[in-house]
User: What shape does this take?
Amino acid sequence: MDTIFALASAQGKAGVAVIRVSGPQAHQAALQLSGSSLPRQGTTLRVLKDQFGNPLDEALVLLFSGPHSFTGENTVEFQVHGSIAVISAVLQSLSEIDGLRIAEPGEFTRRALENGKLDLAQVEGLADLIDAETESQRKQAQTLLSGGLGVLAERWRRDLIRAASLIEVTIDFADEDVPVDVTPEVSGLLSGIQADLQKEAEGVGIAERIRHGFEVAIVGAPNVGKSTLLNMLAGREAAITSEYAGTTRDVIEVRMDLAGLPVTLLDTAGLRDTDDHVENIGISLARKRAESADLRVFLVEKGEDLTIEMRDGDIRLLPKADVRENSEIAVSGKTGQGVDYLISHITRVLRDRSAGAGVASHARHRETLNSANERLKNAQTILLQGPEYYDIATEEMRSAIRSLEMLVGRVGVEDLLDEIFSSFCLGK
Amino acid sequence: MKHSIFDVIVVGGGHAGTEAAHAAARMGVKTALLTLHRRDIGVMSCNPAIGGLGKGHLVREIDALDGVMGRVADKAGIQFRLLNRRKGPAVQGPRAQADRAIYRTEMLKLTEAQENLQIVEGEAVDFLMSDNCINGVVLSDGAEIHGRKIILTSGTFLRGVIHIGDISRPGGRMGDRPSVKLAERMDDFEVPFGRLKTGTPPRLDGRTIDWSGLDLQPGDDDPTLFSFLNNRISAPQVSCGITHTNERTHDIIQKNLSRSAMYGGHIDGVGPRYCPSIEDKVVRFSDKSSHQIFLEPEGATDHTIYPNGISTSLPEDVQEDYVHSIFGLENAVILQPGYAIEYDYVDPRSLSLDLSLRGVEGLYLAGQINGTTGYEEAAAQGMVAGLNAAASCLDKEPVNFSRSNSYIGVMIDDLTTNGVTEPYRMFTSRAEFRLSLRADNADQRLTPISISLGCCSQERKEKFLSKMDQLGSTKYALESSKYTPKQLLSAGIKVSQDGNRRTGMDVLAFPDVTFETLAPLITGLDQTKPEIRRQVERDALYATYIERQKREIDAMKRDEGHVIPVDFDFSSISGLSNELKTKLCVTKPHDLAQAARIDGMTPAGLALILARLRRDTSQKKREA
Assistant: This one.
């Protein structure tokens, strides 16, 4: 096994940079660079030197002994000054040591996975955490990273094993004093798991939104101040504004953090009938994006017809509050009037929706959950056909267990028998 | 004394021993069956029954490989029942009460008639060794028998101890001495031993049982036999009786628990959870006020009754008391008290897939010595050891069974991968591919193996090939005819009118559709034999699931293709936990698929092993 190293912190100038080394030779490499012996565990301050004894930088050296490290292997972290020159000098010195090589992208995490320090879902969680920009993204990633999905899958698997064992007992111990009609309990267990699976699978959509951002589209007639409102919300001149109707033709996107939720605001072309070919392209694009957005903010006059359907959670406001007398439900990008109200509305709606997100957060999770659910649906139908088809029903359940195992570990038939034996008196 | 020379010597004439000896002899090598007494061949020491769920599957598989157990059990059967008759064919298991005397007589007859097979009476006390290689056995009278391969099937005889209440004495079976010397010799091999126990109930005199008020359980009207070669029974048929323990029985047992060998602390061995003693049942399931007892006749003309369900290690006087508290047994005379027996077993993880013991050249182990219980489990291992010992003598490839082709494969894999913590018994739920591993298709799965090994009788071969011919052409006819929903509806078959054309096999999988419903639609099928009709129906029923499992089986076969060399050094793989390393070193998995099944194995651990295997292979290539 090679020993690998790489810069673990971001590229570029910074106060501190972290260089990580992992593998059988990691400790040896640390010793070579720091020139004197190091404690097997903990933090030491050392001057790192190249192979000719020239000092590179003063560094904090952290030693971790496998398996108690991120990768599960012997690991060293050098905290050096975040200078591009220092970093490249240290990396250069490491590369000159025999048996050490620069890590491939993601290789530290892969080793952590291979060494059983993380399961597959946790790896996904780790990647999400590194990408997280907002509070809700951080929380979602950390639930996954802390093994939340594994805990759930383990619970479903346990219930499924229990359900299967109830059927198996009527199969393998047909000649003995065992409960005859186990279908009500089995069916109850399966229904419970199915409901959970469905809820988690449905939550993946929301979880993906949390990961990639919710889209909020501002729509309305031309020249009602949509772009001005966007600029106000963004805190910068993201969109060009003018007194001419039809200034915005493309869709302008602004990413922002709304009370911890990642939101992409969309400024769209004003909706009207026009002969201008280019403007028409912009309008149809606006409609499309507005339709697919998570939320729509309508800037419209009282009684004005909406050409895009208003859906649950959408908000309708009067435009240009600054030039109105009576402006209780109006908003102005110019003066900021009504903006707080708008923000709190968007936040409330999106936060409510976020509550629907479970631990499952990736398309892979959804597919696995759905396929397990499909098997259980079959199992339920087959169970109703009676004991004649119990063997097929348990095959469907076994198949569901296998699907769930793709999220975590693996099922042993001994688990099944353990469940059988702890629950029933068997043996004649 | 003089010294014959054999290829294979089988030590022990029980179910593992007889099957092993027959298998080796059928393979064409010169075989000796060494037993204490000729009369002990095929003796049933425990309950007088063969087959059951999972076990019946094993018997069918043994028969498909042209073994003897099924044929003998058919002759000796005095009450045949197909268990789970009202459940799917995959989980139906043939079972029969067997007449002990007929079983022994028939087994001896077949054994004496088998070509290449010689019965030798005597007690093996030691092995003949040269270096680390076994090449014979020494008998108690000093005689030496030379052989190239030895199959040891010593059952419960290794350091066996019999317990009745607080009385314990050495014994391999009631009335027989244990094999202590052989066990000591095995110690020299540094074989990892463990201790197990099993029990038997008191045997009753059927003439003193009041049968008048008891429920009787007759056999099936249409008996299902074990052997693919047989279609009729020969012994007279009897019924079993059913009675129950009651609260008084339980009181007597509760009061005397301290006098039970097990509860009095005289036994260290672990007993099977699925065959608990009556003491165990009363203690562990104290909320139940009654347990079922089957009164099984030991023979059509034998008065002995085996009360299945009340095995015990209580003292004789307590046995008398509790037996007499049971309805119908008030005046029953105990012919032989129940007893528990404790014995040594070898950790089966030290065996290879061919059941040879690693580290000792030429020694194979089969049966209870490997930690199993049951005649069928023993016989199946005997088959594996017998075929492989012979194959090895003939310089042929090992005969390995897989989880995907047989219950035999499931058992061998379970034993050699994860060892045992209690006597191992077969269940259908142990087989993840049980929809394809059925009792009804054991011949389709295994007889071709037996034919290609050259150890299949001409009679079986001809019968099998003709059956496969008929099955093949019938299935072809069904698969090549397609019907619209409209056509099917006109034949009285309800299908959704989705316009999809379905093959005859597809339609046969529908509930309520039988071969007879379909036959009028297809020309030439009206002559099909009933046995073929039923077989096609069963195949059709599971076809979709078997197709789905095929992907899983293919994945497993891929992993089985990654054979791990015998000298592979698991301890040098960095990143594997010490616990896993230890388990891997004990089990020494044959391939990656087996490694995957080691308890606690992680996908990550497998990736590491695979990576090392690949590295070693590419290194070898470079060196070559």
